[in-house]
Structure formats: structure tokens, C-alpha cells
Amino acid sequence: MSTADITLDEWLHFDEREAAVVAEGAARTAGGVVTSVHLHEFGGRSAYNAIIEVEGRPFAFVPGGDTRLGFDTASWTPTDEEVLSYLGSQAALDLFPQYAHQEADDRDEARALRTDGTVGEIRAHIAAITSRPRTASLKAFLAATHADQAGVSEASLDHPVIAALIEKWKPGYQQLVGDLLLPDTDIDTHGRVSFDPDGKPTAAWLAAHTTYDTITAELAGTGRRLPTPDEWEHAYAFGARGLFPWGDRMPTGWREDDDALVLPDGVHVATASPMLSGLHMAQNSYKWELTADRHEVRGADGGGTECGGEPWFAKWLIQASAYRDPEQGDFVARRPHTRGTLARPVIPLD
């Protein structure tokens, strides 16, 4: 059997030896080398991750098959805290109550807004920004464990753009010089430099103008491509059928000692952990991730809920397994560049 035909159901039932055999086959197909086959836990579930290095870059093996995707809102009922957060309460679902301003708890105000139709309204809202339940037939593939910032690259300190920024550093602790947040119409190359407290430059980056077509053409030239929307959702959920990859509930706490989210059932989810598939995804709400459909982006809302001070309910919905906001996708597709947007290379195995 070709490694491209390995299904998720088969993969989740493999032992370490069987997973290693598949990983070696995928590595031969992609011209890479297996660097790790290990058991990974996420959100109370576990699966083997096969990491394959191709031309110096780590990729994870993602099995395929007939995969259930999307979310059925009729099967989901919010908790009281989730309802209150949806209705505008900042205290409901607050992960950091110890740092909250000394203001009156606003949950009673939100509770007064609840009506018999509130749960239906919430379900309709979720349905508008998640994909519908469906079955997708997917081939297995390799996906880069981390996505790139399009057009952004590390730079040497003697690059002319970087050297000019270094000259702008002023006495006093100025950690960063240069701005990568640029107008959509800007087509120049810009930079940013990081300094230590003594004013010594420690790292630098360049941000160049790039477009969706340029990114896809460059990937195609190396036999790679962007993930389809279905592949992205599949790799993110990895068989989970709840609202989120970790289940149906929004986190209700945070453990500072290990930077982990705490779910109502006591399960912990490390915020820096890769998904069950081994891919780091949806970890920055400001950074959309591109897919093979230029009108479909995933994993972020451009920072709208975070920067806009929305309640926790809105912030967590961005991390729903089936999250897709058509307006966000159309906005990104209309931009004259994709600088800073995330792009994840995929290597087909068929």
C-alpha cells in the first residue's frame, strides 16, 4: 500500500513499529529522512507523530482517508459561562482573574440579557463562521511543522536595509527598531532589528513585498503547494469532532507554571504545543494562514477580536476546528500583497 493511502483511522491504531515503517516510506517518497517517531498527547488524546526532514526542514506525516469535517451546531450546547461571555461579559471565562481590574463582576448584567432564543442565536453565529459537516476524501501528505511568514526572512546585520536601521538605535533600552506592519500599497523591502540592553544588535529580519501568486508559484517550483482548506482543517482537528481540537468546551483557566490552558474537565493543553498531528497551527490570532483557495484563510482573524477587546467567547471561536470566516478570506484575497501572512508548504505523497 502506498503511504498516500494510509488513513487516519489506521494511523491512530498503529503501534510505534508500524508508524515507523510508514514514516520511512513517506521519507523515501519525499526524498527526506525520518528524524522522530514519537507518541504525542494533545487535549486528552494521543497519536504518533512522524517527523521527516526534507532539505533541512521538518515536516509531519498527516494521514488521510474519508474524513469527517465541519461542525454541526445543533449537537452543541453552551455552558452558562459561555453564554454570558457571548452576551458581552468580560469576567465570564476569564483566564486571568487575578490580573483583572478591580471592577464589578459584569456577569449579572450579561445574564439579564439572556432570552429563550439566546442559545439558538449562538448556534447561528457559530454556524456562520464554521464549515458545514461533510466527508472529505483525502490522500496522506507531509506538511511543514511550522508555517512561514510570507515575504519575511532572517537577514544578516550587514544588509543595507538592516545596517541603516542599526544606525537609528538610540541610547536607552530600545529593543526593536523598524516596523514590519506596513500599508497594503507599500511594495518596498523593510526590516526590523532586535537589540540587547546594551544596544548590540542580536537578530534582524526583512519583509519584502510578495503576492499569493508568487508564493504558490515558488512552492510549485519545488514540488510543493499550500494545503487545501479541507487538508488544513483535517490536520488541525485530526479526528476530533467537537467544536475545538480538544473538545467542546472553552478553557476556563490557565496554569502559569507550565503555560497550559485548563479545560472544565481538568484536561490541560499546553499553549505552545503542536496539534495532535504534530503541526503548530492557529497560535497567533493576528496571522492568517493561506490555503490552496486564495479566498479561504484559516487559524486567525487578523487580530480583530484580540485587539478589539472582545470577550473570551469570541477569542476562542477563532480556534474552532472548523473556523472559517468568508469575510476574512475575501479581505485577504483583495489585498495587493500577502506579506506577513502565514504559508505552510505541503508535499503530496501520491
Automatic annotation (TrEMBL):
Lineage, broadest ranks: Bacteria, Bacillati, Actinomycetota, Actinomycetes, Kitasatosporales
Gene3D superfamilies: paralog of FGE (formylglycine-generating enzyme)
InterPro entries according to UniProt: CTDL_fold, SUMF_sf
Domain of life: Bacteria
UniProt-recorded name of the protein: Formylglycine-generating enzyme family protein
